[in-house]
Structures are given as C-alpha cells and as structure tokens.
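Incident log, support desk, overnight shift.

02:14 A customer reports that sequence design results differ from what the structure should imply. Their input is reproduced verbatim below. On-call engineer (initials T.W.) acknowledged and began investigating.
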C-alpha cells in the first residue's frame, strides 16, 4: 500500500474522518436505495459496506488489496488490485469506488477496469476528494 493510501486509511479513523464518512453515508444510502441488479462490486475499503446494503442488488462483492474483517452476510471478498480486476467484462450492474481513486498512482487504470466490468446501462458511483484541493492539507492540520 502506498504512503498516500496509508495516510488516507489513518485519516478515516480521526474525528473529522468519522464526520465526513457519516455525511457521505447519509447521501449514499439514498443513492443506493434506487439501484438494482444482480451484482454490485465495491472496490477499496469496506467502510461503506452497510451503505451498499440499502441497494436492491442481489449480490455484493468487495474487491480489496488487504483483507480486513468479515463481509456482511451473503457478501463476498475478492483480493485483487483495482487496476486489474478478475471479473468478466460487461458483468456488473453497479460499481462503487469509495475514496479509491485519490489513493492510486494510476486512477485512470482503475476507472478503465470499472468501465470494462460494467454492463451496458450499469451504474458507476464514485466518492472522493479533489486531489488538488487544499482541504486535505487543512484537514491534516485540524486533527
């Protein structure tokens, strides 16, 4: 895992991180409650796992490079890189990228992989920070 990813993982566990995650979860629950299909793939940290449970998607799969904890009942975990997903083309109804793009050296590859596995009319949900914003620097000093 890169230094940037380690910083992001540690930031999530601060008070400010908890506030941001709670605000995002409230918004995302309403988004996911309108999504349906057979397969939802979440790439990255399983912190948002309970949010995806509000969706009408039958099967949820978490793709992560590091296995942390147990999935929710009926969910699966796949250990893989976001830039090389072991998932068939055009096979997924929803792909969720929670704060993964800003932590990758090559985010374009992860987006290309997400597009590759999405079926036609599939949905891509992205949650992230602007990497050129001053807010992450301010947030680090506010801790």
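02:41 Re-run completed on a clean worker. Output:
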């Amino acid at each position: 895992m890169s230094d940037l990813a380690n910083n992001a993982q540690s930031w999530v566990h601060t008070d400010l991180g908890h506030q941001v995650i709670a605000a995002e979860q409230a918004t995302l629950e309403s988004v996911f409650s309108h999504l349906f299909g057979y397969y939802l793939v979440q790439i990255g940290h399983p912190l948002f796992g309970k949010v995806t449970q509000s969706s009408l998607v039958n099967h949820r799969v978490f793709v992560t490079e590091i296995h942390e904890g147990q999935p929710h009942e009926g969910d699966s975990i796949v250990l893989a890189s976001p830039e090389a997903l072991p998932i068939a083309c055009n096979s997924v109804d929803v792909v969720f990228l929670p704060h993964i793009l800003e932590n990758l050296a090559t985010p374009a590859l992860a987006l290309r992989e997400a597009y590759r596995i999405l079926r036609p009319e599939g949905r891509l949900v992205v949650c992230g920070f602007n990497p050129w914003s001053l807010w992450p620097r301010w947030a680090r000093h506010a801790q």
